[in-house]
Amino acid sequence: xxxxxxxxxxxxxxxxxxxxxxxxxxxxxxxxxxxxxxxxxxxxxxxxxxxxxxxxxxxxxxxxxxxxxxxxxxxxxxxxxxxxxxxxxxxxxxxxxxxxxxxxxxxxxxxxxxxxxxxxxxxxxxxxxxxxxxxxxxxxxxxxxxxxxxxxxxxxxxxxxxxxxxxxxxxxxxxxxxxxxxxxxxxxxxxxxxxxxxxxxxxxxxxxxxxxxxxxxxxxxxxxxxxxxxxxxxxxxxxxxxxxxxxxxxxxxxxxxxxxxxxxxxxxxxxxxxxxxxxxxxxxxxxxxxxxxxxxxxxxxxxxxxxxxxxxxxxxxxxxxxxxxxxxxxxxxxxxxxxxxxxxxxxxxxxxxxxxxxxxxxxxxxxxxxxxxxxxxxxxxxxxxxxxxxxxxxxxxxxxxxxxxxxxxxxxxxxxxxxxxxxxxxxxxxxxxxxxxxxxxxxxxxxxxxxxxxxxxxxxxxxxxxxxxxxxxxxxxxxxxxxxxxxxxxxxxxxxxxxxxxxxxxxxxxxxxxxxxxxxxxxxxxxxxxxxxxxx
Length: 536
Fold this sequence. Notes:
The structure is a single chain. The chain is mainly β and about 525 residues long. The protein is about 0% helix and about 45% strand. It has 2 helices and 39 strands. The strands form 9 sheets. Strands 17, 18, 19, 20, 21, 22, 23, 24 and 29 form a 9-stranded mixed beta sheet that branches. A 6-stranded mixed beta sheet has the order 3-2-1-11-6-9, with no helix packed on it. A 5-stranded antiparallel beta sheet has the order 4-5-10-7-8, with no helix packed on it. The protein is elongated and about 110 Å long. Residues about 1-25, about 125-130 and about 500-505 have low confidence and may be disordered.
């Protein structure tokens, strides 16, 4: 005969008079202002304790304070069916949230502003963890509004394990159930979380003692209890009935559209983030710090990780840093991100100066690995008599958003980097001011004012015409002074030819390296106003 027990735990504050909510088959724990609480109708051996860490008022849940209920001595044959939390707030409640935990798992968020004077009964169903003989429930407020909370715990003593089911069927159960694995594959192992996929769905073997590796193929029967924590379907309290494990091939992530994540919960997926917002949350310590952020629509990239759905949002728990894609011919959407991989598409010509602005920083070692040993990077130092002056950077490093000129050792059309920070990307490119020419970086295609100057092939400067544009990851010179005569780079090593000026004033006095005065038609190295120019 089925016996269904219901634990109704009622916690009242001074504003809520103590009373007994009597009902047939109900076991009650009652906390009042004059007693430490009592438990009525519980199975033998079950005890309950209540703790409120708010020292100002024992029964009012102030901002930051926590109410904790601990049930001990629960019989081993009891199966947790669900937990309901009933909250009531002051009528003057402002904005705020309260959060509830079962064990160490966050199971519910409540908007304080929407609760109001009447109790709100929120059934969180299977969003629980295995409790064995002890169950701990906590609720913490992040505003001063909550003044009454009820904890309701439902469980049964019936063996509900029933007929073995596949993963999809197991995710519909409450209490202990039997999971039958038929050519199920281990798609990912992250610490004590083992993610397993069969033909029907995927699930997380949470805190499992099973020693499994990615690619293992599983057949057999295991018992456990379904749980739903952090947006993931889980099996907890796993006990093996019969299980064979065979090593398998490398696991490929499922390439799915962002709007299909709900069908791949707890599965290893690879998702493009361009078509909808996706929430990323660091559950596995990928960046060695806690982060949770939303990638906006249009942020082109690939995220590889475990799929989840939480609070109405699709969530990816990355198992490696996300890959962001950038190109000079598209509208790039930038995000701040603590640790990422990037792939940037843009052509660089070797043996000449190229303007460059990047949404991320590069060390000198990364510059050399990408563009080759001997690559030079120079920073703008201003202009003098229509000469654009640059100085060589001694370590050839590149700072995010700053415009430079770069002399690659070999042709390059793509930059690939791992483990970099995009913390400044959203702020846009910077401008380095000069007297008559301002050096302006671009992280997207821009249309500067006509008359702006840009660096063309073979180190020549040209004037931008009406309607002209500059692609992303370059730079131009904003000016009203007309075209510059050329660029001058100081600190060049031997063997690197000084850039040629596009045009020189014919009336200037010129000398060759022997100190002889020459005309403007002289081919070779000319010295003008103390500077050296190569005229071909």
